[in-house]
Amino acid sequence: MVTAGPTREKIDPIRFISNYSTGKFGYEIAREARRRGHRVLLISGPTNLEPPKGVRIVIVESALEMREAVKRAIKKADCLVMNAAVCDWRAHSASRRKIKRRTGKRVLELIENPDILKEIGRKKGDMILVGFALETEDLGSNAYKKLREKNLDIILANRHRAKSGVFGDKRVDVLMVDRHGKRTILPHKSKAELAKIVLDNVSNIKI
User: Fold this and answer.
1) Is the confidence at residue 166, as pLDDT, over 90?
2) What's the rounded Cα separation, in Å, for the pair 9 and 54?
3) Measured CA distances, 65 to 9, 35, 56, 70, 86 (Å)
4) pLDDT band at residue 136, thresholds of 50, 70 and 90?
5) Which residues does residue 6 pair with via DSSP β-bridges, in sequence order?
6) Residue 165 confidence (pLDDT)
7) Is there a domain that residue 99 lies in?
8) How far apart are CA 92 and CA 94, in angstroms?
């Protein structure tokens, strides 16, 4: 199972909270997994991408919808690659009508979304879990902390910079850490190249 893309958290019928994820990396992983003969379920947030051929796809919008889709399918999965950029927060109460402009400040109250990968990690058993991290600082320590807290087998992390090619088609520099603490630097890789590396490492994991 692969998750991909952003989530959208409604503020009103017109506006939402989201992030810059394009979904391309997750779609490349799903495409490569299918090419290798795996049965693949792709759970995707909103993107403009064409679904990979031969892959079953479930489209969701919010973090809560993604959580439910993952929970419904998780018992049949032997590996979860959680590439989706799930929003950490959602509006406490989304308005049913468009919020009109007015003079003065408005306060948007946010509440925390569930941590899907952490929930799965608590009871993963023999399932292989792969996570991702995008950081602005302390890349190595933050990646390793997330790996341990969420009981992952592999985490891929990259650093966001103002002019870095993190989103879309550009090549990126990635740090990969496995559950034994081994760190591998993967410089200037395309998303398609990284998808192959991820699945090569997944196939080498011995549970």
Assistant:
1) no
2) 29
3) 10, 28, 17, 9, 11
4) confident
5) 85
6) 47
7) no
8) 7
**168 band by pLDDT with thresholds 50, 70 and 90:** low
Domain that holds residue 117: 2-91+110-203
CA atoms of 84 and 51, how far apart (whole Å): 15
What pLDDT score was predicted for residue 161? 65
Query: Can 19 be counted among the known catalytic residues?
Result: yes
Amino acid sitting at position 40: V
Residue 121 has pLDDT above 80, yes or no: yes
Find the catalytic residue in 19, 113, 151, 201: 19
Q: 32: domain CATH number?
A: 3.40.50.10300
Helices (H), 57-183: 63-73, 116-122, 139-149
Residue that is written with structure tokens 């509006």 in the block: 91
Count of domains forming the chain: 1
For the chain, the farthest-separated pair of C-alpha atoms sits apart, in whole angstroms, at 60
Rounded to an integer, what distance in angstroms lies between the CA atom of residue 119 and that of residue 190? 30
123 Cβ contact partners less than 8 Å away, ≥ 6 residues apart: none
Average pLDDT over residues 79-102: 95
Q: At 37, which amino acid appears?
A: G
Instruction: Give the 3-state secondary structure of residue 33.
Output: helix
Q: Give a yes or no: residue 151 inside a domain.
A: yes
Count of other CB atoms within 10 angstroms of residue 17 = 18
Answer for the pair 205, 59: CB distance below 8 angstroms, yes or no: no
pLDDT in the model for residue 164 = 52
Burial class, 92, CB count within 10 angstroms (exposed 0-12 / middle 13-18 / buried 19+): exposed
